[in-house]
Amino acid sequence: MAFNQVEWQPCEGCNAPLSSQYWTLGAKKVCPVCRNGLVAASTAQAGTFFAALGLGAAAAVAGALVYWFVRVQFHIEIGLVAIGVGYVVGLAVRRGSRGVGGRGFQIMAVILTYLAITMQYVPDVSAALHPDGIGWLFAGPLIFGLALAAPFLGGLSNLIGIVILGVGLWEAWKLTASNANLLKGPFAVGT
Q1: 29: which of 60, 62, 93, 144 is 20 to 30 A away, CA to CA?
Q2: CB atoms < 10 A from the CB of 13, how many?
Q3: Distance separating alpha carbons of residues 4 and 110, to the nearest angstrom
Q4: Nearby residues of 184 by Cβ (< 8 Å), 6 or more positions away
Q5: For the whole prediction, is pTM greater than 0.70?
């Protein structure tokens, strides 16, 4: 390259040349226009909320069924399944939010992940209480409450299980972080 020529770096969002300043989104460099678009997109519309909720709930149901199946078939709780549930639910919520993410989507993903991990205990609690007919009307809330509390009912003897549950929830949380929070800059071009 000759000293009298300027080599332009393109924006990795729109391919326009980066002129005076840029922002980074991970390893990508983006121009001010693309940065403004990312920030504007971080305020999601109601449609993305319901899409994220729908996809996240579907992933949570699938995750709960897989977790329950593995636990019942192999007579063992495999903690990696809980982490996988958090990952899949986080990805589903992220996809439903069109990649925007943000605090509301993070809370949604964590709640759906926790429900998926704990609701797989409902058949066991139900079998132990034997509700039938009208008994479900009274036992239903108790069954779901016990399922929600199940990870903590073992006390300190289930410490590893609680840690694994936390890792699964953390996966869901970090996968749904806002893009706007990941933007760094502005940086001057040429530095």
Answers
A1: 93
A2: 17
A3: 55
A4: 23, 24, 25
A5: yes
